[in-house]
Amino acid sequence: MIKVRNLVKHFGKDEVLKDISLDVEEKEVVVIIGPSGSGKSTLLRCFNKLEESTSGTIEIQGVHVDKSNINQIRTEVGMVFQHFNLFPHKSVLENVMIGPIKVRKWSHEAAKDKAVALLKRVGLESKADSYPASLSGGQKQRVAIARALAMEPKIMLFDEPTSALDPEMVGEVLAVIKDLAQEGMTMVVVTHEMGFAREVGDRVIFMDQGKIVEEGIPNTIFTSPKEERTKVFLDKVL
Amino acid sequence: MDFNMNIIIEYWPFFLKGALLTLGISIAGIIIGAVIGLFISFGRMAPNKWIRIPFSLYINSLRGTPVLIQLFIVHYALLPAIYPPGTAVTSAIVTLSLNSSAYVAEIFRAGIQSLDKGQTEAARSLGMTKVQTMRYIIVPQAVRRMIPPLGNEFITLIKESSLAGIIAAEELMYWGKAAMGQYQRVWEPYIAVAIIYLVIVFSLTYLLQWIEKRWVQRD
Ligand SMILES: Nc1ncnc2c1ncn2[C@@H]1O[C@H](COP(=O)(O)OP(=O)(O)O)[C@@H](O)[C@H]1O
Ligand SMILES: [Mg+2]
Questions:
Q1: Beta strands A29-33 and A55-60: pairing type?
Q2: ABC transporter domain: which residues (chain A) (predicted)?
C-alpha cells in the first residue's frame, strides 16, 4: 500500500530523514516509535506531502505521489494529528461532512448519513451539533478520526494521536484506533503508548536521528531488541 | 456660567447634517480602506522579500505620520496635482481611505497569520485544494477574528474624520467651529458636538459587541 524508497528530507542544512526505505502492506498496522526529534512526524507527513521530500520516491497503492495527483491521493489517505486540528467555526457534524461534500462532491444527505453513522461509531452522536471548543480532548480526537474516516480512506496515518490528551482520555481514543485495526484498516501510527504498540502493531519501527534503526514484530522488538540504541530507548520509556 | 441652549437649537439641523457627513466620510474611508488594505496585506505577506519591502514602507509611512499631515498633503498637493477641482470632502475620503488601508492591511495580516498552520494541514489532508482551503477554512475564521479590530479602526476613523473640518469639509466638527465663530461661545457648540460623537461611537461599540456575541466567539 505504501512504498518508500531512499527518502531524504532536509530542513535547511539539517538532514532530518536519511535514506528511509519502507513498505506497508495492505491491512498492516505499522507502529513507529522513537525519541522526540527523530523524524517520525516528518516521515508521516511526507507520505501525503504535507512535507515536501528532498529526494526519494513514495508510492501509494502503486501510484507514484507527485504534485499532479496529490489531492486525489490525499482522499485515500486519512490523517489524524496530535493537536486534532478540528475546524472551530464548524459544528462537529459539519467537521465530519465537509470533506465528503467539498472534495468527494457527495450530496448533503449522503454526507450527513455518513457523518451521523461515524459519530455513532466513535460514541459522539449526541455531540453532533456542538462546536469543537465545547469538547474534551478525547472527544475532539474522536471527531478528528471520524472526519478522516468520512473520506473512506484506504490508509490511515496517526501522528501521536494521544500525546496531547489527559491520561484518563487516552483509552477512549486508543479503543477507536484498535477497533479500526481489527476491521483491517491499513495504518501507520506514531505513538509513545508502548502497550498499544505491542497489542495492536503488526510491526514496530524504531527511528532515531532520521534513520530506521530497527524493525520487527512487537514481541521481538520489545523483549529482545538487537540494536543498542533501541535498548536504551526502551529502557527509558518502559 | 450661563448655558445658552438656543445656540444648540439653532444649529441642530447643521449638526445633524454634519454628523451624517461624518458618518459618510468614515464609512467611505473604511470600505475603500478595506479594499486597498486587502491588496496591501497580500503584498506585505508575499514570499519574496523585495516585493514585501514597498508594501511595508507604505504601511509604516501611513502609520508613522499624523493624519493631519496626510490630510494637508492630499488636499493641498496630491489631489490638486492629479485631480485639480477636488473638494474638501474628496480629500477627506482619500486621506482616511489611505490611512485606514495601512491599519486594515495589518489587521488582515494578523487575522490570517494568527490561524494555526494545522488548520490548513487538516484541510489539505482531506484533499481540499488551496482555493477550497482558503474559502471554507481560512477566510471564514480570519474574518471572524478581524471584526473586532476592524470595528475599532472604524471608530478611530470617525474621530479622525473631525480633522476634515480644518480644510472646510462640512462635517460635524466644522459646524461646531462655525457656531463658535458666530456666537463667540465655546461650551455650547462643542459640548453638543462631543455628545453627538459619543452617541455615534457608543452605538457602534454596542453593535459590535452584539455582532461579536452572535458569531465571533466560537473558538
Ligand atoms: N518545519 C520545520 N522546520 C525546520 N525543522 C523542522 C521542521 N519540522 C521538524 N523539524 C526538525 O526536524 C527534526 C524531526 O522532527 P519531527 O519529524 O517532528 O520529529 P518527531 O516527530 O520524531 O519528534 C527535528 O529536529 C525538528 O526540529
Ligand atoms: Mg512528532
A1: unpaired
A2: 2-234
Is the CB of residue A42 below 6 angstroms from any atom belonging to ligand 1? yes
* Banded pLDDT at B75 (limits 50, 70, 90): very high
β-strand pairing of A211-216 with A186-190 = unpaired
Encoded amino acid at A157, one letter? L
Better-predicted residue by pLDDT, B84 or A170: A170
Work out the widest C-alpha separation in chain A, in whole angstroms.
Answer: 55
A2-235 placed in CATH 3.30.565.10: no
| A89 contacts B127? CB cut-off 8 A | no
Contacts of B119 in chain A (CB under 8 A): 85, 87
Evaluate if residue B217 carries a pLDDT over 70.
no
- Spacing, Cα A87 to ligand 2 middle (Å): 21
Instruction: Give the span between the Cα atoms of B126 and B119, in whole angstroms.
Output: 11
For residues B86 and A2, the model is more confident at A2
Domain-wise residue ranges, chain B: 5-216
User: How far, in Å, is the centroid of ligand 1 from the Cα of B31?
Assistant: 43
Mean pLDDT, range A168-177, rounded to an integer? 96
DSSP-H helix ranges across chain B: 5-44, 49-63, 67-72, 79-82, 88-113, 117-125, 130-132, 139-160, 172-183, 187-211
CB A206 within 8 A of CB A34: yes
Q: What is the DSSP letter of A149?
A: H
Closest residue in A to B129 (Cα) is A71
For domain B5-216, the CATH superfamily is: MetI-like (1.10.3720.10)
Q: Beta-carbon neighbour count of residue B200 at 10 Å?
A: 18
Contacts of B219 in chain A (CB under 8 A): 88-89, 131-133
pLDDT tens digits, one per residue of A122-155: 999 999 999 999 999 999 999 999 999 999 999 9
How do residues B144-182 score in pLDDT, each as one tens digit? 889 899 999 999 999 999 999 999 999 999 999 999 999
Count of CB atoms situated within 10 Å of the CB of B188:
22
Flag if B125 and A77 touch (Cβ within 8 Å).
Answer: yes
CA distances to A104, B118, B129 from A72, in Å: 10, 20, 10
Residue B85's pLDDT is 73
Q: CB distance A133–B136 less than 8 Å?
A: no
Cα separation, B218 vs A232, whole angstroms: 46
Neighbouring residues of the ion ligand 2, judged by CB less than 5 Å: A 41
For the cut 90, the answer to whether the pLDDT of residue B143 exceeds it is no
Determine whether the interchain pair A50/B125 forms a contact, defined as Cβ–Cβ distance below 8 Å.
Answer: yes
